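Tokens for chain A. Residues wanted.
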């Protein structure tokens, strides 16, 4: 089954369970994607986060209800669509189609809702340079950042302070400093964002407190280099997931995306930042 067929299975499943609290495990099972990569792959193919897509489906159903059942109040339709108030529903509805629910009910302008909220991107020729390398297991001293993406710098400072306080002072080095990127900050609510930062350490170094031991598993990795601002790293990650993987007939393994930093913000201009993106393969 190709990636487009998997996506169709997922969207069908979501449509059948639109009012349910669908779990990530369910969607991973349906799509046969690792739960670590489901959101990223879904967004790579649709341009929407899962939450945005579900909201669109509910709004489209509400648009039908506004036309078909004119005796039903807008508040009732809003509640059925998962909104807590008439105002929140009206804002979301107007933002989506340009009309308030009452204007839409009066005007019966259905053309907007005939379009899909996304279109599968056409795969063409890409200049992305991806290598597949066999990499040994790597032990890391890591700090787990949870919450607001803008505060990742505070976690970085904690890791650096810990490293400097070691008997043999450690220092984040190019090619030996990593991050495990569980979530995309552009599609994940800040309160749910997860991002681990770490440096390579020897097996005999004792770790405690906020610094925990984690390993990058051994295996085959798809590796490509992102150059420039790390705020735009999705411009490298999404084409790899959406275009390179299907064309290479490869499958992602059961581990999140890994970043390996080859230089740092205090060393070079933002345009010269080099970040290696690694994906474990099956």
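Reply:
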């Amino acid at each position: 089954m190709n990636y487009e067929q998997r996506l169709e299975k997922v969207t069908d499943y979501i449509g059948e369970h639109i009012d349910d609290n669908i779990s990530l495990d369910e969607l991973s099972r349906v799509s046969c994607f690792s739960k670590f990569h489901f959101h990223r792959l879904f967004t790579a193919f649709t341009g929407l986060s899962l939450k945005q897509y579900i909201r669109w489906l509910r709004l489209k159903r509400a648009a039908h209800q506004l036309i078909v059942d004119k005796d039903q109040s807008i508040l009732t339709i809003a509640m059925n669509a998962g909104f807590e108030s008439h105002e929140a529903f009206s804002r979301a509805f107007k933002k989506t189609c340009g009309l308030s629910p009452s204007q839409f009910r009066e005007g019966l302008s259905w053309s907007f809702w005939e379009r899909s909220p996304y279109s599968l991107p056409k795969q063409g020729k890409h200049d992305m340079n991806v290598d597949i390398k066999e990499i040994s297991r790597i032990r890391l001293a890591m700090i787990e950042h949870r919450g607001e993406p803008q505060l990742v710098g505070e976690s970085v400072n904690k890791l650096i302070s810990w490293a400097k306080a070691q008997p043999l002072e450690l220092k984040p080095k190019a090619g030996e400093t990593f991050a495990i990127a569980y979530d995309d900050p552009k599609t994940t609510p800040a309160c749910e964002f997860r991002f681990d930062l770490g440096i390579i350490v020897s097996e005999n170094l004792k770790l405690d407190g906020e610094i925990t031991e984690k390993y990058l598993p051994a295996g085959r990795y798809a590796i490509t280099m992102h150059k420039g601002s790390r705020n735009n790293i999705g411009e490298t990650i999404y084409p790899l997931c959406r275009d390179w993987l299907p064309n290479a007939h490869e499958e992602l393994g059961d581990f999140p995306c890994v970043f390996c930093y080859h230089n740092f913000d205090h060393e070079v201009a933002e345009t010269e930042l080099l970040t290696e993106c690694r994906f474990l393969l099956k």
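The mean pLDDT is 86. The first helix runs from residue 3 to 16.
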